Amino acid sequence: MRRILLTILATIGLLHASAQCGIENKAFSEGEFLAYDLHFNWKFVWFKVGTASMSTVKSTFQGQEAYRTSLITRGNERLDNLFVMRDTLVSYTDMQLAPLYHRKGAREGKRYYVDELWYTYPRGNCRVKMHAITSRGDHLWQEHEFMSCVYDMMSIFLRARNFSADGMKVGDVIPMPITDATELKHSWLKYRGKESFTIEGTSDKFRCLVFSFIEHENGQNNELIRFYVTDDLNHIPVRLDMFLSFGSAKAFLRTYQGVRNPITSKIK
């Protein structure tokens, strides 16, 4: 009986701690599917170079109810001539979007590597077990415990979709600490205001909130992604501008299914 009671109390403590790193989810639900076209800039000309898709389903992780979100990017033959890109990201979060597990398997150029993260929440802290498989095939393990919440690129993206811009001013920033399987990165989200955006090749026009994801590294602030999300409860990313080490890329929303809320941002 005592063991059962201790187990119950430990479980309650775990749920309370992970809830501190969660957020009320109003932006999406299971069954959402988003598809994108990828474009790359080469000598001032934009080419379609691949596709990306993001899907969310309801699942379980280690017996706990969870969202499972997958992001898959695939370059086409045109991009392969310049830079091979085959990325698959999988993220498990609890129903309040606190991260539970993250995996990125990426073939980028001649490199293939894997990052894995496992999250637990002892004593109200955030503990992250990290596993990296380097392009040389080395397995690197480490574990860190943080007093504040820590996220990965996928879970922070799901969290950011639930931010409200009400009351925000242009230039406002939101701290967003992100880790991969090697280090914690000092990063934040910067609000850039509102713009309208028409999806390329269509007449679909949306009112959008514009944010930049910025990372501080080697003494410099670097904008990694600028994204445009619908100015409604869904906060669907309709455009992403990516500033890469080998050039600039853009992703444009092509299709969407299973959206949770009415798309009130669409301009008729």
What does this structure look like?
This protein is mainly beta and 268 residues long. Helices cover 12% and strands 56% of the residues. It has three helices and 16 strands. It has helices spanning 2-20, 77-80, 153-160, and strands spanning 33-42, 45-61, 64-75, 85-93, 99-108, 111-120, 126-133, 139-146, 173-175, 178-179, 184-198, 205-217, 220-230, 237-244, 247-257, 266-267. It has a 16-stranded antiparallel β-sheet that branches. A hairpin with a 5-residue loop joins strand 7 and strand 8. The protein is globular. The termini are far apart. Residues 1-17 have low confidence and may be disordered.
Features:
mainly beta; globular; disordered N terminus; 16-stranded antiparallel beta sheet; 3 helices; 16 strands
How would the blueprint of this fold be written?
Blueprint: H1 2-20, E1 33-42, E2 45-61, E3 64-75, H2 77-80, E4 85-93, E5 99-108, E6 111-120, E7 126-133, E8 139-146, H3 153-160, E9 173-175, E10 178-179, E11 184-198, E12 205-217, E13 220-230, E14 237-244, E15 247-257, E16 266-267
Antiparallel strand pairs: 1-2, 1-15, 2-3, 3-4, 4-5, 5-6, 6-7, 7-8, 9-11, 10-11, 11-12, 12-13, 12-16, 13-14, 14-15
Short recap of the structure:
The protein has 268 residues and is mainly β. It has helices at 2-20, 77-80, 153-160, and strands at residues 33-42, 45-61, 64-75, 85-93, 99-108, 111-120, 126-133, 139-146, 173-175, 178-179, 184-198, 205-217, 220-230, 237-244, 247-257, 266-267. The protein has a 16-stranded antiparallel beta sheet that branches.
